[in-house]
Amino acid sequence: MKLNKSIIIGIGAVAIAGIGAYNYQNPQKVTAIKTSLQKQENFEPAANNKSFDFYVLSLSWSPTYCMLNDDKSTQCKEKHNFVVHGLWPQYEHGYPRECPSNVKHLDYKIVQSMLDIMPSERLINIEWDRHGTCTSLSPDKYFKTVRAAYNAVKIPELTNNSSRYKVGDIEAEFIKLNQGLGNNMLAVTTKEGKLNEVRICMTQNLEFRPCQEVDKNAARENYRLLVPAP
User: Fold this and answer.
1) Which DSSP string corresponds to 102-170?
2) Neighbours of 204 (CB within 10 A)
3) Which residues are paired to 193 by β-bridges?
4) Is the pLDDT of residue 47 over 80?
5) Calpha distance 95→92 (Å, rounded)
6) Which residue segments constitute the domains of the chain, with CATH numbers given?
7) What is the pTM assigned to this prediction?
8) Cβ count near 213 (within 10 Å)
9) Is the pLDDT score of 211 beyond 90?
10) Which segments within 15-114 are labelled E, that is strand?
């Protein structure tokens, strides 16, 4: 029996779509590594949160930000090393952003409680609007999770003087201090030849985990960059 060509094409398209759906619903298994996170009061991961796959904890090298932006904010009047840029929900490929929310303004007490690790009221509000709204968490629980993620990572002291590093050297400093953290679980980004951010991938339980796309889009290990002094 001869089949019409258009029918054959249609059957093929349905089969490919079915394979794509299967791959989306059954992603490649990722092995998570427990961090040094101690049981922290006020932090519990969201139960069965399927709105995203994992977090990226983004640590910004504050001296670079202040040097390039000539910022007069409190952050740049004080001397900081790494500060929290944000805790971003991610998909295996891509990420959600600026999700619908009934929360229009953050509570003043929440903002003030985060200034020691996110020393900018504007930044705290932006991070909630762009990323916190996509976690299915309340503002209070989201920012407690931000702090818990920050506390789960041991942050190295790079230098007190402007120095040049290889990206791989910076990654090695983090890996040395954080048991279970590997090269495929963090990424270093640069801006105008300077250290910009270190991004660390974590499960919703705040365990280290691989993140191929995040790592792929970062600077390569042999790239030499300037680390401005605080």
Assistant:
1) S--S--HHHHHHTTTTS--HHHHHHHHHHTGGGTT--HHHHHHHHHHHHHHS------SS-EEEEHHHH
2) 20
3) none
4) no
5) 8
6) 54-227 (3.90.730.10)
7) 0.81
8) 14
9) yes
10) 54-61, 82-90
